[in-house]
Amino acid sequence: MYRVWLKGEYATFCLDEWSWEALGDPSRRRYGGELLVHSSFGQFCHTWNSCAVPFKQFLLGIGFDCFMTKCLGDDYLVFDGGASVKQVKQAILQNRREEGLSAEDARELWDVLESVSETAEGSEAGFHIALADVCSEETIGSSSDYVVRVPSSQAEGFWRELWPEFKAMLESALNAPATTTVAAAA
After folding, report:
1. Residues 166-176: pLDDT tens digits?
2. Which Pfam family name is an example for this entry (predicted)?
């Protein structure tokens, strides 16, 4: 078990690791492990059953998106209303330049977008509802084509504040000399 307290944030990391001989090839080992994290940024957990290297070493090399996708699925991504509306604006401009959207139609779409942008930026459901008149196959396509999702502040905060400290603890554990306990003879 590892504990991190840093800048008012905390996490408890519980880790278990294992290895076994690969079927049909006793010279090759397979590795796996389980990580359970309870933190001020939320809970993160997953079991990795087939790592190419020992589990602690595997965790040292794992990337943000891979870790978050395994632990949280797509739930670590949240709707970015401002960026989504910006995508729609870019599509209107691009369709005006390249796809033959008339200046009058482009202006009308832009004006509608401006009038509903606050609702569109507020939530993903609001985005689709507000842009029903702007986004259609006859204009610039489906509103789903312009939804932007970004990592949540919780996921980013965990990775920025706590994960590096945990990695440092793992590196120390891997670099520590192995100790063997020998029972004294009676």
Report:
1. 999 999 999 88
2. Phage_phiTE_072
